[in-house]
């Protein structure tokens, strides 16, 4: 920004009485420069496709159940479940513990999904698939490690 | 309503789950998958049901379900998805290039 206002250019504008400034002149309503717009050209304008490509309901259900089953099995007997179990046993208020734990789990999975979505916009699809596969393999190795340690 | 207990359970579970296996899995699945909604709902439902079982069954959960087998099955499931991504994803990438 190089715009420096010189104080010399400050010229007092002609101070006219503003009482009549807003009075519309009769020639301002000339309709010469306003031809009737064609509506037909605007109707064929394509909407910006921001939404992701449509996924069929069957595919969505398949994704839902594969996610559900794998994460459910992975979480069974995990430390979170042990934590909620112990807390509900100690406090004798299982529903309060369930509400807190459930809200926390929904929040963490929402965070995870958002991080994944954020990554998918920045990394190419193929790189992300390989990275996701590596992460899933790591998760399965962690699970196997849990089994071996127990 | 015991707000102290609610906050305590929320904070404990939230901190212990941050960066844990299931969140890693959610990141990986949503990065590769097509439907964010399905993955979010699936992950949430699975986690809710798991903690629900933890609350309901109490200490009986570990005796009712052999966790070794369950975890082994889950490990096989994740490995299967990973192999599917590596294998079929490559085929899709090749078919897109041609």
Quick one: how many beta strands of chain B? 0
Query: What's the end-to-end separation of chain A, in Å?
Result: 66 Å
The DSSP helix count of chain A reads: 5
> Which residues of chain B sit in consecutive blocks of at least 5 with pLDDT less than 50?
none
Beta-strand proportion of chain B: under 5%
Distance between the termini of chain B: 61 Å
Classify the beta-strand content of chain A into a percent band.
Answer: under 5%
Number of domains of chain B: 2
Characterize the largest beta sheet of chain B: strand count, sense, and whether it forms a barrel.
none
Largest interface: A-B, 82 and 78 residues
Oligomer: heterodimer
Query: Helical amount among residues of chain B, as a percent range?
Result: over 70%
Secondary structure: helix percent of chain A: 55-70%
What is the count of β-strands of chain A?
0
Low-confidence stretches of chain A: 1-51
Rg of chain B (C-alpha, Å): 18 Å
Could you give a quick summary of the protein structure above?
Chain A has 150 residues and is an all-alpha fold. Chain A is 61% helix and 0% strand.
Can you walk through the features of this model?
Chain A is mainly α and 150 residues long. Chain A has a domain at 58-149. Chain A has five helices and no strands. Chain A has helices at 39-43, 57-75, 79-91, 94-122, 125-149. Chain A is globular, with a radius of gyration of 32 Å. Residues 1-51 of chain A have low confidence and may be disordered. Chain B is mostly helical. Chain B has two domains: 1-58, no CATH class; 66-98. Chain B is 87% helix and 0% strand. Chain B has helices at 3-17, 21-32, 36-57, 60-64, 67-97. In chain B, helix 2 (21-32) packs antiparallel against helix 3 (36-57). The model of chain B has no long low-confidence stretch (mean pLDDT 78). Chains A and B meet through helix 2, helix 3, helix 4 and helix 5 of A and helix 1, helix 2, helix 3 and helix 5 of B.
């Amino acid at each position: 920004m190089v715009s420096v206002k010189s104080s010399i250019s400050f010229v007092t504008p002609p101070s006219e009485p503003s009482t009549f400034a807003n009075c519309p002149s009769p020639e301002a309503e000339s309709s010469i420069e306003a031809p009737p717009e064609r509506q037909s050209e605007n109707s064929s304008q394509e909407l910006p496709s921001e939404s992701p490509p449509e996924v069929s309901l069957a595919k969505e259900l398949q994704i839902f159940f594969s996610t559900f089953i794998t994460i459910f099995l992975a979480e069974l007997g995990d430390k979170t479940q042990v934590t909620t179990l112990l807390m509900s046993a100690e406090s004798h208020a299982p529903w309060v513990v369930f509400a807190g734990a459930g809200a926390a789990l929904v929040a963490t999975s929402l965070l995870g999904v958002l991080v994944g979505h954020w990554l998918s916009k920045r990394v190419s699809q193929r790189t992300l698939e390989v990275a996701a596969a590596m992460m899933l393999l790591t998760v399965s190795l962690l699970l196997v490690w849990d089994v071996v340690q127990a | 309503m015991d707000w102290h207990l609610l906050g305590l359970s929320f904070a404990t579970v939230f901190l212990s789950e941050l960066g844990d296996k299931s969140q890693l899995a959610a990141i990986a699945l949503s990065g590769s998958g097509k439907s964010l909604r399905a993955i979010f709902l699936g992950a949430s439902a699975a986690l809710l049901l798991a903690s629900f079982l933890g609350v309901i069954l109490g200490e009986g959960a570990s005796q009712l379900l052999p966790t070794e087998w369950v975890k082994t099955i889950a490990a096989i499931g994740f490995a299967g998805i990973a192999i599917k991504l590596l294998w079929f994803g490559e085929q899709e990438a090749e078919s897109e290039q041609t």
